[in-house]
Design goal:
six-stranded antiparallel β-barrel, six-stranded antiparallel barrel, disordered N terminus, Thrombin, subunit H, alpha+beta, Pdz3 Domain, 2 domains, single chain, 381 residues
């Protein structure tokens, strides 16, 4: 069969054009490749984390080896009065090389046996050294080698908004760290009626099992002891409360040495004075605590402070007025009975404090050596 010349020529030209354009396309596609080095973004490594994350890591590494899990075994009784062992868990933290551990009183309350688990999972039997129910504090002790311990900080100048960390064993999950801020400083009442003066409120997650663990500042220093939460469901709702570490520091030595707190006392019967009563009595200050009576031989009596010398009535209650009006202790204002109690909580028996008073229209400072409060002795557990 013969092919027409025009058709043959057209097919030949088409073939030549196809081959030419195909060659050009392939060449251009090769020549157009960017042969510069390819840049690959690497995943973040510990060396590239930001300063805040690095601080979190450093605080955890430094403090977590000193935080322990405490398992307490108590005995309850069933319907037939048969003994039924019950276990509870909480946290604590080592405070010295001798194995003393600070925790909450309610963590070890009524415990027949105590077992402490360190961060390395090693377990040790523990003994109660001393308890302070009124501050919900306790010191227990283990004997173990190569212990790490915390640094106790200062809770006296905390600011709302300050960053804090909580480390403990919520729900038995050991070595857990949460982060938050100081939400408020306020006095709160625990379920058993115990008051925590100047409790640290925080939104750092605190759950069952965190009790007794440390609340830390950004330097990894202990500023509080995690104690309780405010929640309708029994889990963290972002409102946790901690005992300020200064309250603990004031009693630790007594707990270790005597197994109880030698609670300090001025040895007075106080009467809180507000502006209205101050004006009615013609006092030189608008507020303070008036000494109604000094305890014979007590700290105030030995320092020369004066009680009341004139009988009056507060409602239907007879009182003695005219005594010294306490307005400050060591420079800290005393405006009511709560301020006075707070000042005592930050000291111990034997401390010498400067009490600022008004005696009539004369203001003066008096040195007072605090004595142990009588009738307030705590039994050793």
């Amino acid at each position: 069969m013969k092919i027409a010349r025009p058709l043959l020529l057209g097919a030949l030209l088409a073939a030549i054009f196809f081959a030419y354009t195909t060659h050009r396309f392939r060449a251009s596609s090769v020549q157009g490749i960017d042969r510069s080095p390819i840049h690959v973004t690497e995943a973040a490594t510990p060396a590239t984390v930001d300063s805040e994350e690095q601080n979190n890591i450093e605080v955890y590494k430094r403090v977590s080896p000193a935080v322990v899990n405490i398992t307490s075994t108590a005995v309850a009784f069933d319907f037939f009065y048969g003994p039924v062992p019950q276990e509870g868990q909480g946290s604590g933290f080592i405070i010295d090389k001798d194995g003393h551990i600070l925790t909450n009183y309610h963590v070890v309350q009524n415990a027949r046996q105590l077992e402490v688990t360190l961060s390395n999972k090693k377990k040790f039997k523990a003994q109660i050294v001393g308890t302070d129910h009124s501050h919900d504090l306790a010191v227990i002790q283990i004997t173990a080698p190569n212990l790490k311990w915390v640094t106790l900080g200062d809770s006296g100048n905390l600011q709302v908004g300050q960053k804090v960390y909580a480390i403990g064993n919520p729900f038995g999950l050991s070595g857990t760290m949460t982060r938050g801020i100081v939400s408020s400083i306020r006095s709160v009442q625990e379920p058993d009626g115990t008051f925590i003066d100047e409790a640290i409120q925080t939104d750092a997650a605190i759950n069952p099992g965190n009790s007794g663990g440390p609340l830390l500042n950004s330097r990894g220093e202990v500023i509080g002891i995690n104690t309780m939460i405010l929640s309708s469901v029994g889990q963290s709702a972002g409102i946790g409360f901690c005992i300020p570490v200064n309250a603990a520091k004031a009693v630790i030595n007594d707990l270790v040495q005597f197994g109880r707190v030698r609670r300090p006392s001025l040895g007075i019967m106080p009467l809180p004075i507000g502006p209205e009563l101050a004006q009615e009595l013609g006092l030189a200050a608008d507020s303070g605590v008036m000494i109604v009576q000094v305890v014979p031989g007590g700290a105030a009596d030995q320092a020369g402070l004066h009680g009341g010398n004139e009988r009056a009535y507060l409602g239907n209650t007879p009182i003695m007025i005219g005594g010294d009006l306490i307005v400050a202790i060591n420079g800290e204002p005393i405006e009511d009975a709560q301020d006075l109690a707070h000042a005592m909580d930050n000291h111990k028996a034997g401390d010498v404090v400067t009490v600022t008073i008004w005696r009539g229209k004369k203001k003066m400072d008096v040195k007072v050596t605090l004595q142990e409060a009588k009738g307030d002795r705590l039994r050793r557990s």
